[in-house]
Design a protein that fits this description.
198 residues, Rossmann fold, 7-stranded parallel sheet, globular
Amino acid sequence: MKSLCVYCGSSIGASPVYAKAARSLAKELVENNIALVYGGGKVGLMGVIADEFLDLGGEVTGVIPKALLDKEVGHTGLTRQHIVKDMHERKAMMAELSDGFIALPGGIGTLEELFEALTWSQLGLHEKPVGLLNVDGFYDGLIGFIHQLVNQRFLKPEQASLLLHDSDASSLLARFKSYVPSYHPKWADQEKAKTLVP
């Protein structure tokens, strides 16, 4: 595992615990000689993790669309910064450059990126680990909703287990290192569903 993509907010969030977690994750990755791939911004948690990485001597690659260069205040001190044409190219490049995906706290954009990576895993389009750093219970509701998808038979338990989560950066990284990819057909109850269609 040479590099991990970290999705996180371009805002700092309501609690200082989120920035603390971003710094903790940066420290853990640098100590394990794992490079950072992220959205290329200098503000919010994006800026926190990038700056901490750089301060610790780690390698940081940013990928940012030209339209967001000013809005997210593109970081100018990275190891390398790729400026791309749109969000689709951004996500594709981040995925290509990474051996796994971790979501720190963030907003709709963070969730959208996370679920795209998770969907690709579910469909067998990649075999990379996808996880949540569940800082101070931030993602408890989301984890609960994943269980709801399983309970309502829109998702198989094996597919739900593709989303790793832990409140501790070191423990989450250990789970990433021991991750064994597995593919299960997407449809939870394909044969049963046929009998339920009116």
